Amino acid sequence: MVYDPLTGNSCHAKAIWDTGATLSCISPTIAKTLNLSAVGTTTNHTANGSTASNKHIVDIAIGNIRFQKIAVTSPPLPDDFVLIGMDLIGLGKFTVQNMNENGEVKKVLTLELP
């Protein structure tokens, strides 16, 4: 869930965990849906090249964890996606596990904050 910390407005989003990303990003569609004001501009550098995008301040909630007043950018991403970068992942213990239980493979992702 992504929130505008000024108005409390929110929208659902799908999260992409990207340990290769320095900063977290939201799609331009989310920025438009929440009517977020830009607090600046920046250049995002990706494997596909560089692109200019706006900077915004948001709250991002993942399960029962809420990151408040996070600076994000809004480069081209699918409509309802949030890219979770190392700026947030690095705040805690990030774990990905594959578990074989009753012959089934389960993927478990956890983020624990101190």
Q: How are the SSEs placed, and which strands pair?
A:
Layout lengths: L1 E2 L6 E2 L2 E4 L7 E2 L1 H6 L6 E7 L2 E14 L2 E9 L7 E4 L1 H4 L3 E9 L2 E9 L2
Parallel strand pairs: 3-8
Antiparallel strand pairs: 1-2, 1-6, 4-8, 5-6, 6-7, 9-10
Task: Considering the chains and any ligands shown, give keywords for the structure.
five-stranded antiparallel β-sheet
Question: What's this model, at a glance?
Answer:
With 114 residues, the chain is mostly beta strands. The chain has 2 helices and 10 strands.
Overview of this structure, please?
With 114 residues, this protein is mostly beta strands. The model has no long low-confidence stretch (mean pLDDT 89). Strands 1, 2, 5, 6 and 7 form a five-stranded antiparallel sheet that branches. The chain has a three-stranded mixed sheet with strand order 3-8-4. It has two helices and ten strands. It has helices at residues 28-33, 86-89, and strands spanning 2-3, 10-11, 14-17, 25-26, 40-46, 49-62, 65-73, 81-84, 93-101, 104-112. The chain has a single domain (2-112), classed as Acid Proteases (Cathepsin D, subunit A, domain 1).
